Amino acid sequence: MKTYSYNLFPKPLVVTGYGLIILAFVLLIVNLNSGKSEDLPNELVSSIAIVFIGLVLISFRSRIVINYKSDIVIRESDLLGISLSNEKIQIPHGCDKIFIKEKNKTGTGYYRAVLPVNYKFKSYDMFFHSDKGVVRLLNTDCNRAIKIAEFFKANLKLDYILELTQ
Question: What is the layout of strands, in order, in the sheet containing 97-108?
């Protein structure tokens, strides 16, 4: 079995996670040395919350595992070493390539009455392509889609096609 693992969050957010952990420890040390012990439990709880947010940013990972014997790809997601999801995707018989299709997505924020937010972003859906149709693998950003496609190209000898919208 071959495994490809990646952080779910982009590198700037992972670096932010490390920064939050360092900030929480610095704040805790400063508060302990300041001599004000009346708010110590509240400051300890806030430091723990900041560390937890940093750990989430750092440790939320996804993994793709190729099982050669059964032609299955396993998509796993975990947080702090705890498995959150485990999805098995059957590689279709006669799969000849991986198809990557760009999709423009738009939407509005959940709390529109409080903070109206409209957003647009590009998502890249990945499919196993065979003569009988396609099987959806995942959706991600462009750079990661190409890295994952290169992983499949190296291990399963499947070429990929990137379809961009105009």
Answer: 133-140, 118-130, 97-108, 159-163
pLDDT tens string 28-54: 888 878 766 677 778 888 899 999 999
Say if CB 39 and CB 27 are below 8 A apart.
Answer: no
Q: What is the 3-state secondary structure (H, E, C) of 60-121?
A: CEEEEEEECCCCEEEEEEEECCEEEEEEEEECCCCCCEEEEEEEEEEEECCCCCCCCCEEEE
At 83-136, the pLDDT tens digits run 889 999 998 888 889 999 998 877 766 665 666 677 777 889 999 998 888 899
SS3 content of the chain, % helix, strand, coil (to 5): 35, 40, 25
* CA pair distance 73, 75, nearest whole angstrom: 7
Longest dimension (CA), the chain: 72
Entry pTM:
0.77
**Nearest one of 155, 8, 2, 145 to 85, comparing CA atoms:** 8
